[in-house]
Amino acid sequence: MEPNMNRIVIEPLSQFDLSTHSRTSSVRSLAVSTLSRRSQQQQQEAVVFVGTHSGTLFSLSTDVNDNTNAQNGGASSPSFLRKLSFRRSVSVSDSPVESILVLGELGKILLLSDGSLFLVDSELENRATRLGFSPKGVSLVTRRRLRDGECEGSVLSEQQSFLQKLGGGVIANGLKIKETELQGECGCVFALVVGKKLMLVELVLGNRGGKSDKDVNGSLVVLKEIQCVDGVVSAMVWLNDSIIVGTVKGYSLISCVTGQSSVIFSLPDVSRPPRLKLLEKEWRVLLLVDNVGIIVDANGQPVGGSLVFRHGLDSVGEISSYVVVVSDGKIELYHKKYGSCVQVLPFGGEGIGPCIVASEEDRGGKLVAVATATKVVCYQKLSSVEQIKDLLRKKNYKGAISLVEELESEGEMSKDLLSFVHAQVGFLLLFDLHFEEAVDHFLLSETMQPSEVFPFIMRDPNRWSLLVPRNRYWGLHPPPAPLEDVVDDGLMTIQRASFLRKAGVETIVHNDLFLNPPNRADLLDSAIKNISRYLEACREKNLSQSVREGVDTLLMYLYRALNRFEDMERLASSTNWCVVGELEQMLEESGHLRTLAFLCASKGMSSKAVSIWRILARNYSSGLWKDPALEYSIQGSGENFISGKAIAAAEASKILEESSDQDLILQHLGWIADISQVLAVKVLTSEKREIQLSPDEVVNAIDPQKVEILQRYLQWLIEDQDCNDTQLHTLYALSLAKSAIEAFKYENIFENLDSGNIETKGLATLRNSIFQTPVRERLQIFLQSSDLYDPEEVLDLIEGSELWLEKAILYRRLGQETLVLQILALKLEDSEAAEEYCAEIGRADAYMQLLEMYLDPQDGKDPMFTAAVRLLHNHGESLDPLQVLEKLSPDMPLQLASETLLRMFRARVHHHRQGQIVHNLSRAVDIDARLSRLEERSRHVQINDESLCDSCNARLGTKLFAMYPDDTVVCYKCYRRQGESVSVSGRNFKEDILIKPGWLVSR
Measured between alpha carbons, how far is 987 from 749 in angstroms, rounded to an integer? Predict the structure, then answer.
C-alpha cells in the first residue's frame, strides 16, 4: 500500500539545545509527562525529562495550550521554534541515566543508572537518592500497568489482592515482612532484570519523623523472583499479570503468578535488537522485528494486521491512533489500524546517530518528544479539526473524509461535526466545479440547511436572503455566488493555474482539469442538475414553511433553466410550496403557461388557472402556440392542435368540476363545450363540488345550439338528482321532442339520398352524439315514465310531425282513448299494442270500437280484415255476436267471415266453460277449508249397510270402499276409475297401492 503522507498530525512546538548547558554530555534517555503545578492552582504543565550520558537529569517545560502554529495553518520550521524552558537539573550518578519512569501520582521519578535505582521528586528540588535494599546490577526496569492506567500498589486493597496472587509471601533481603508493616505506606510495583533473574518488587515510601513528601525516602520490597529466559533481556513490558520480554532470540510471555514462560515469537539470527512498546490506547503491545511491527494482546496473541515501517528504526512511541518511530533524523507516524504512513517530519540532519522518542503515557496525551545526542524537539498533536482543515486546504477531500470517519468510529468526533465537515467538503468541491461530488456530500450532511444553497440559484437580495445562515465553514471557500459566477470563477482559476504551471509554479488544481478542460455550458448544466437533485431530496425533509417555499420555488427556476418542462409540470401539479408571485412572470415570458396553469390550480387560484387554459386552447386552435409535450408526436397531421385543445379543455374541466363558483363555471362553459360537449356535461353534473349549481341559471347559460348538453344536464337533474320541477320536466320533454323531430327529418333525407354518396356519409359522421341511445327512444321512455311534464304543451309541438307513437303516449296521458286507438291501429298498424290498450281500458266496447276501426278505417284506406280477424280470434268472447254481424262489411270474403264467426262462437263456448272451471275451482277452495277443519277432530266415520257410493249410488254393503279426507265415500270400483289405488281395512290390492296420510278406511 502506497503510504499516504498528506496529513499533518503533529507539528513542532519547541526545542532544547543541550550543548548550551553541558558541552561534554549527550542525551541518553527521554520521558514526557503532564504534571500539576502546585503553586498555580493545580494547572497542568507538560514536562520533558532528559537523562544524559554523564548521569544528569534535566527537566524542561512547554506550554501544552500553545496552538499558534496550528492556527496559522501548518507546521513551523524547527529553526524558528522557541526554546523549551529549562527548569532544573539534578545529578544522579557518574554513569548514564538509562531509564526514566515518571510516577505522576506519587510526584516521584524512578531512575536507572549504574545498575541501581534512584528516586527523585518530580520538581528536581532534592538530590537523587539510591533506593534502600536496591539490588545491584539492574539492567532493565518496567512498571506494572493496569488497563485504567492506575498503579495497583497505590491502593492497599489492590496491593493485598496482588500479593495473594503471588502466594502471600513477601521477601525483603531474605526476611518476611508482616502485612501490618505495609499499612499507611504507598508503593508501585515494578519488574527488574538482574542478571538472569526477573524480580518483582514494590516501591514503598516511608513517611516517618514528620518529613515532607520531598524528603521521603523509598525502599524496594521484593515480591517474587522468577528465573528469566535465556539470553540478555533488552526490552520488557508488564501489563496485568503478564510480562513480555525480548531478547536476541525472540519474545516470550512470563506469568507473574506461576513464573512460567512461553515463546511468542522467535527472531531471525540476524536482526535488529528487540523493541517493545505498550500501546496504551488499545491496551496491546507492539513487538518489533526489524522494520515490521506485530501487535499482540495481553496474552501474547497477535491481533489485527502488522505495521511495515519504511526503514529501520531507533525508537518507537505512541500518540493517539498513531505509532511514532524515529530514525536517521526523521520522525514518522503510522496509523495503527490501517498501517499507512501519514506524516514524515525531519528534525535533524542525516548521520546524526541514534535517536530517541518519548510520548506521554496517558492515552489522551498530546505531546511527543524526540532527541538526538544534543538536541530535544517537542511536537504537539494538532486537534482533529485542524488536521481536517489542513487536508481540506490541500484539497485532499478523500483524506479529510477518511480522517473524519476514523475519528467518528473511535468516538472522537460527534455526528454534528461529521455533518459539518461533509457540508464543508461539499462547498469546496462546488467551487472546484465538482458538482456531483459536492451534492453527494451535501446529502450526507444531516445539519446542512437547504437555504444554504439558495444564493447559488438566485442573486441577493431576494425573498429568502434572510434565511441563509451566515456560516463561513472555517473560511476555506469563497462566499456563495450564483452558479454562473461560480463556473466563470472556476474556469478563470484553471486558466490562471495553467499559466502558473507553465511557469514552473506548482498549483493545487487537479491535473484532469488541465488535460481535459471543461466546457462552460456543460459545467453549468451539471451544476444546475445537481443542485436541483439536492433540492429534490430536501423536499422530503421536515422544513419550515418559508424554507419549503424557497426550495420549491427555486427548484422551479432550475427546471426552467434546464427546460425540463415535464418536471416543471409535475412539480406544479403536485402538492407544492411554490410562490406563484415569484414564478408568474418567468413562466409567462418563457411560454410555460401550462406549468403556470397547473401551479395556479394547485394553489386554489381556479379563475386564473382556467383563464390560462382558455388562452392555451385558443392558441392551440389558431396554431400560434405548440405544446412542448406533443412536439414528438406525428408531424404535419394537425393532431397536435386538436390534442392540445382537448388537453386544455380537460384540465380546465377538472378545475371546474371541483369549483362551486357558479359565475366562473358558466363563464368558461362555452369554450369547453365548443371543444368537448362531454367535458361540458361533466362540469355541469359533477358531484365533487360542495354547493351544486342553480338549474335555472345553468339552463339559461347553456348555448341553445348545444342541445345535447342541455338534455344531458336535465336528464341528470331528473334521474340522478330526483328533481320534481314540472318546468324542467316539460323543458326536457320539449327539447327531446324537438330533437326527435329533427332526427326524423334527417333520417328521411338520408333514406332518399344515394347510400353510396360520400357527402351523405360525411354528414352522417358529423352527427355524432354524446348519447348512445337514440333520441326518440329517450323521448318515449321519458314520456312514459314522468308524470310531471305538460303533455298538452308537448303535444302542441309534435302535432304536425310523424311522431305517432309519442302522440299516442301523450293522448293516453290526456285520456283520449279513441285517438290513441286510431294511432295504434291505423297509423302505426300495431294490432298487438292496440289490443293491449283495449285490455288496459277494460271495457267490451273498446274492442268493438277497435273492430269498427279495422273494418272502416276511413280516409280511403282499405278495411284491415286480417287485423279484425286477429281481434275476433283473441278477444271474440268479449264481443256481442249480433253487433259483430252488424259491423261486418259485405265486402268481407264469406269464408273468412264464417271462419271468424265460428271462432268467435267457439270462443264464447270456451269462455262459458272457463267460467265453470272457475266455479269448480272456487268449490275446491271451499273443500280445502273444510278439510282443514275436519283434521282437527276425529276422522273415523261409521258406515252402515245402507250407505251408498257417493259416485255411482251403489249400495256399499260389505263391499270394499274408500273414504276421502272430505268425508266422501266411494266404492272401490269408482275409486279405481279415478286412477288411484287404496288400502282398505289394512288389506292391499294387487295393484300398486299408495297409502296417503290423513286417510282412514273402515267398514
Answer: 87
